[in-house]
Amino acid sequence: MSVPRFWRRLKNLYNLIGTHCKKCGGFYYPPRNMCPRCRRNGVIVPFKYKGTGEVVTFTIVHSAAKDYAMLTPYILAIIKLDEGPRLTSQVICSHEDIHIGMKVKSAFRKLGEESDRGMIYYGTKFIPLEN
Amino acid sequence: MRDVAIIGVGCTEFGELWDKSFREIFVEAGVSAIEDANVQGGKIDALYVGNMSGGRFIEQEHLGALIADYSGLASLHIPSTRVEAACASGGLALRQGIIAVASGYHDIVIAGGAEKMTDVGVETTTDALAAAADREWEGIMGATFPGLYAMIARLHMHKYGTKQEQLAAVAVKNHHNGTMNPKAQFQNEISIETVLNSVMVADPLRVFDCSPITDGASAVVLAPAEIAHKFTDTPIYVKASAQASGTISLHDRPDITTLDATVAAANRAYKMAKTTPKDIDFAEVHDCFTIAEICAIEDLGFVKKGEGGEAAESGLTAIGGKIPINPSGGLKACGHPVGATGVKQAVEITLQLRGEAGKRQIDGAETGLTHNVGGSGGTAVVHIFGRER
């Protein structure tokens, strides 16, 4: 992914900042600049999530695209944050321990790298809450 | 709105067509459709080309013009439009063609689809396909397409007790159907053990749970129903064309095991055709992964939610079963050239309804349905076809 495209999202990726609609009370992560329920009537403001949640579903990826090949096999999961929204991320734990319903918390981790000289991506992954 | 009929179909063989280029395969499919329909090139009013990722797979955009040119239609200045909706590009191109004829804007329209996926390495292909998901919020986290469908499978197994053997039974059934399709990429039988012992791609999905990387093209010729008999004795009528959107990201789906765009498109299609799932004789559904066929037959209303796992295992969806699914071999065995798939499904339905499907012929088929999905369910297209107008 290009540098500006990544840079634009740094605060969201590093600090788990999404959005909240003050009109309907909806919470969004990834951030949305239009509330999908209120549309133009919505009042969208930034919202920082606590970073705790649980695993809704997961997989162990054995075959990945080039930038992520060095990480395989890795756990990819959909996490439901305690405030409500769901997101896709990786969980760092033993492959025997991962399960649906596992309580997790956010952690700052390396996501991937383009090549020896390319950009290194950092962002939010998840680790078991009881650690 | 006018009724629309398919008056001709064409399809290349599906597979690793290393000695053929993108433009060659499209022209091959288009020409065989035109010959099947018995129309002259000068009679064609418009061309719609389904393609997902020419820019990534062959570093070529502006595919509408390319295809018009190499089909010999640029000299006649026939309008040609590329249509993109990831793996549903073909289904959408077909739908655009149907809308063009139904509206009265055009009379004779070619709707085709093509993808040339083997000119690049498998890592590039994987990455190009991942662009059908949300690049900024799924792809960057390491999501792959098998990974997304694996998460659907995991939750389906957790909620409904679906078993790996039941996923495998979908692949075994579709490979069996593929043995009777001379155009299919895989024409060999496999066993449940073949699937369960194959390499893990994204747990619980193994390589035999996944559709392959394929080159191929397909095309249909559309005409207003009232003149269809001028071209063919066996026009196949479009009873419904419906499309629906869903969230692009799997994580935002209200129920992760339901492609709600499929449900919405199917409901619209059944209403339009004044029919119900019970009245459908057979279907070509979007089995990009084995779990996808299980979700599809549930979301299309052929079985109750959660009961899709048993369908292939029990023979319900076999040729000769109560509701045959993917007689062509589906994406799994016939192959999945992403832009071509949605059109190929309509080609198969047409052959079946005409009684020209050879060894895989479904006896007495009157009504068939196609179901084409983009991404993990951001787009769904459902068409219903019938022998009777």
Helices and strands in order, then pairings?
The complex is a heterodimer of chains A (131) and B (389).
Chain A: H1 3-7, H2 10-15, E1 17-21, E2 27-28, E3 44-48, E4 52-61, E5 74-81, E6 86-91, E7 103-113, E8 120-128
Antiparallel strand pairs in A: 1-2, 1-3, 4-5, 4-7, 5-6, 7-8
Chain B: E1 4-11, H1 22-37, E2 46-50, H2 54-57, H3 63-70, E3 80-83, H4 89-102, E4 109-115, H5 122-130, H6 145-160, H7 164-178, H8 192-196, E5 200-203, E6 205-206, E7 216-224, E8 236-245, H9 260-272, E9 282-284, H10 290-299, H11 308-314, H12 330-334, H13 338-354, E10 367-374, E11 379-386
Parallel strand pairs in B: 2-3, 2-4, 9-10
Antiparallel strand pairs in B: 1-7, 1-8, 4-7, 5-6, 8-11, 10-11
Task: Describe what you observe in this structure.
The complex is a heterodimer of chains A (131) and B (389). Helix content of chain A is 8%, strand content 43%. Chain A has 131 residues and is mainly beta. Chain A has a domain at 51-128: OB fold (Dihydrolipoamide Acetyltransferase, E2P), CATH 2.40.50. Chain A has a 5-stranded antiparallel sheet. In chain A, strand 5 and strand 6 form a beta hairpin. The longest helix of chain A has 6 residues, at 10-15. The mean pLDDT of chain A is 92. With 389 residues, chain B is an alpha/beta fold. Chain B folds into 2 domains: 4-121 and 214-236, 3-Layer(aba) Sandwich (Peroxisomal Thiolase, Chain A, domain 1), CATH 3.40.47.10; 133-210 and 239-386, Peroxisomal Thiolase, Chain A, domain 1. Chain B has helices spanning 22-37, 54-57, 63-70, 89-102, 122-130, 145-160, 164-178, 192-196, 260-272, 290-299, 308-314, 330-334, 338-354, and strands spanning 4-11, 46-50, 80-83, 109-115, 200-203, 205-206, 216-224, 236-245, 282-284, 367-374, 379-386. In chain B, helix 7 crosses helix 10 (290-299).
